[in-house]
Design brief:
156 residues; alpha+beta; ten-stranded mixed beta sheet; 19% helix
Length: 156
């Protein structure tokens, strides 16, 4: 039985090393996934009864690009994603959230439009919304309603 001990130990060691290698590669894949969070969210108090805008920053601390594909909120019949280029804005199917970067939705730039409001939110209230992505789990955000003339000092 002595001559088999060497090959058995070598085979066992190879299996252990292979298992370690497999778990390392899966954990590195997990660490490169998109890791999304939201900051600086706000809605200026709407000036009309039917439309409102929303602004926020989606940070991605992961190594994979994701895409904001849709937004829902119980305060509006529709929430659309708009891209601003120069002086024109248009509804788009989604906006990229770059790997190790951020998607900034700000006044004068890309933004959310809350259309066909079910009620007009007032300054001091919060509006709940759900952000849906191509790869990541949806994120629920409590967006504070600020004055109609609010200008953030940082974040966007």
């Amino acid at each position: 039985m002595r001559p088999l001990a060497g090959p058995v130990l070598i085979t066992a060691a190879a299996l252990v090393l292979t298992a370690c290698g497999s778990s390392d590669s899966s954990s590195s894949a997990a660490s490169s996934a998109a890791k999304l969070s939201v900051k600086s969210a706000y809605m200026p108090q709407p000036v009309t009864d039917s439309l409102a805008a929303g602004f926020l920053v989606i940070e991605n601390d992961g190594g994979t690009t994701d895409e904001l594909t849709s937004v829902t909120s119980d305060i509006a019949q529709d929430v659309t994603v708009h891209e601003t280029t120069g002086q024109s804005m248009q509804e788009v199917a989604g906006l990229k959230v770059p790997a190790d970067g951020e998607l900034v939705l700000k006044s004068g730039g890309n933004h959310l439009m809350f259309e066909n409001l079910k009620r007009k939110p007032k300054e001091g209230e919060t509006v709940a919304l759900r952000l849906n992505f191509t790869k990541s789990e949806a994120i629920t955000v409590e967006m504070p309603v600020k004055s109609a003339t609010y200008q953030p000092t940082s974040g966007h």
